[in-house]
Design goal:
Length: 133
């Protein structure tokens, strides 16, 4: 599961790099593609990491739950992105799409920070016992 998660994480990261190279006002359709591919890849990454965490006895389940909670923020955004009003149709539609994207991105940052700090604490505690996993 962690291998699948890593695969989708790499795709999501590459898409985020593509977003920075092709901003909305320069290359609309490419930007839109990278947003969609990046968010969907990140959703799959979160799912596979959650499953991997729940399967690993030595890894606390709270980190898997953090990914699942994050998915409850990300999935509705994906639905808005695919089925919601198109950003080019009105200023209100653009505001909805852009704001919901920002909520997801800041939630991603917090989720990954929580994961990183948690792993660092687990590894720090377990180095005297020969490592976590």
């Amino acid at each position: 599961m962690a291998v699948f998660a890593t695969f989708f994480g790499i795709i999501a990261g590459a898409c985020y790099i593509g977003l920075s190279w092709l901003p909305y006002d320069v290359a609309f359709w490419e930007h839109r593609y990278f947003v969609q591919a990046g968010f969907i890849s990140f959703l799959l990454m979160s799912l596979f990491y959650a499953i991997a965490i729940f399967q690993e006895e030595k890894y606390p389940n709270k980190y898997g739950w953090a990914f699942l909670i994050f998915m409850m923020i990300l999935f509705p955004q994906i639905l808005v992105m695919i089925y919601g009003p198109r950003s080019w149709t009105s200023p209100d539609a653009l505001l909805l799409q852009a704001t919901s994207q920002k909520v997801v991105v800041y939630s991603q940052i917090l989720c990954l920070l929580y994961q990183a700090v948690g792993l660092w604490k687990l590894e720090t505690r377990s180095t005297t016992r020969g490592g976590l996993l």
